[in-house]
Amino acid sequence: MSVRLGFEAIRSSHGPLARSVQDCELFCKTIFGQKDSSHQNIPMSYHAVELPSKLHFGYYLSDGMMESSPACKRAVLETVSALRKQGHQCIEFTSPLSTLSIPLLILRPDNLSRRKCDGGVPGARIIRRPYGKFKLKICRLYLTQPDLQEDSLFLVTLGLRLPSFVRKLACWIAKTFLGDSLFPRFFSLAREKSVLEFTDFTDQRNKVAAAWYEQVWDKYGFDGIIAPVQSLPLIISKGATYLSVLAAATITYNVINSPVGTIPVTRVNSDTDNLSTDFVVGTSGRSKMFETRMYLGKNPVYDPKAMEGIPIGVQLVGKKWKDEKVLAMMHIVDAALGPRGFGPGSWEPIKTVSI
């Protein structure tokens, strides 16, 4: 179910946040096939999957939009190395469709216009402030200020509030003077859309999903895909204001409707995860503006010294309807990686001081 009722252009997905793969599996065994009030769940109970002794994995280190940080790349490579030691086949491939998912990120309720008086954002006024003077006073009384817009909505709603010529000028400057051809593709679509445009985007979503099957699953015959969850180990406070597009790394799999499991692999290490001295932003069609904010400047978001010890995971992707297989492959990956300081019993209990 979407956060906005009736909106299903890119469906939200829900899953357990657990301490172990075993806990995730128990959750799925419990709820799969259960009836829900809206009758949306598939009436199919959990069924165990028997995997072949040797699996065929595909993997990539970056999604083609932004270069992944050294820490996130290392997490993927350590996973691949562990699987190969167990005799599984792992082949690196380049995703041909990641950048095609960018326009589809605009398929969200914040960007579909029904009333021009709202600046093209149904509910935008609700996000910025509560309904009516009474709620505003209550909000001020208890919270001292009205409800504020999420930082992650800044970029996708900014274009809606700008005149068309300003938005086009910003895209032209980004492409002509800043050398970024990816950002204009994203920002130019942050505008009001007609019903016809919406249906065109929905059709494009379906074509992207079909193309993924043809160019990835069918072409390579992978059992699963191993990839970074996003380009950075984490996004610092207020970082989502300008880097919300990083979520495209996993929203891609919402677009193609694939089940995904996330497994912790390692932690940021300031000795091994520093940026290469020959790193150049924006190569191979990636976003120069986003990568500059991520890696360069006086206060880059990626700072392995400040992020020391932060957990890093990988996402394990399976084919549509293969949720149980993804869980089974998560068991394989978890066992291959071995003990690494995650899961139940991995943390020392907090010592309490008796008075």
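The above is record 1. Record 2 follows with the same two-line structure.
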Amino acid sequence: MDIPTQSFLPWKISIAILHVTAAATACLRIDYRRRTRRLWWDDYAASVPAFTESFNAVFLWIRLRHFSDEEDTNLREMKVAFGFLNSGLFATTMWWSRISMALAIVRITPEWSKSRIITLFATSAFIFSWIALVVSFAVACALRSSWQYSTADVLICGPANMSTIASIALDITGDVYLAALPLYRLWRIRLPLAQRRLIRLVFSTSLLTLLPVLVVLVWSYGGFIKGPGFGLVWLMLLQMEEAISVIASNLTVLIAWCYKSFNGDIDVDAESNKYVNPHWTTSSPSVLPSVTVIEPFAATFNQASNQANCNAYASDSSGTRSLKSAQADSNEQHICKDQPHANRDIETGHT
């Protein structure tokens, strides 16, 4: 099948909209977690794809254009630099989306579970994969320099690169893992049926990233797709893969948010705080967040404080109290009269 020469404008408009949508989902996810005081490492990791997708939307318009030979004496070097930058952005966006999803699995996994150790190891493996692919893309595209001398408007270090093959293999492995492990974990969580179905559906969205990966695999190595438009369409498929990966990594939080909006009494996302301590924030720097996790201890603390006051009051009742402290007698009597049993014990201990 021959792919004809492609016009840049339709691709630039459609893919830019997709990049902006992906960046918007990440920003909405981070803002929602900030407002609900549930920010954690998975949300911080999601900020990296939000930045790269915003940059991709602009970078796409700079790169996809027709160059004239008179426009720049260093035209070829600029197009080569665009090719290297595109490879780095692709690896960063894809793998930081997976890192965010892996940390989201860590977030809902108990500390005593073996699955948590496995997921932490997988998260470390994803970080290593990102670093390895960025380096390998740069080295392989530098050593295999034939693509740099093309006369095309867009220079692409294409699918013949061995790093691209390794990237696709790692993509498939990572996506299958991110879909399988959370489904296994969530299957064992005791929740109402509707919530269980929702959470399984949300995490299974990681399978969405498999579709563009498989399309890229067939397009790159199927051998039956050729023509002058092959390279540009292949590049646009990679751009779609990036955006879909970012959207899928944020759907977990966004669908839970929508579910809560329509069912105010059910907060599915609250389960994400069960095994971690969120890095709470507040919208106003002058207002400290209320830490609800210490509320169960507030009554005990107040009771102990009142008990100490009663002890001091009882011990000084023999007339040794100072004039200044005597001014608080009415307050202390009010506190101690609510603890008759404690007072009787105090009085017995001092007789």
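The mean pLDDT is 75.
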